[in-house]
Amino acid sequence: RLRSNARASPPEPAQPFEFRALEAVLISVVGALQTDEEVLVGLVQGLLAYLEESVDRAKLRELLQYSKRLSRFEQRALNIRDAIEEVLEQDEDLAAMYLTQKLHGRARARDDHDDVELLLETYLKQVEEIVNHVESVSSHVRTTEDVVNIILDSQRNSLLLLEIRLTILTVALSSGTFLSGLFGMNLVNSLEAHPHAFAVVSTIAFFSIMALTVAGLRSMRKVLRRIN
Question: Residue 188 and residue 193: Cα distance in Å, rounded?
Answer without folding.
Answer: 11
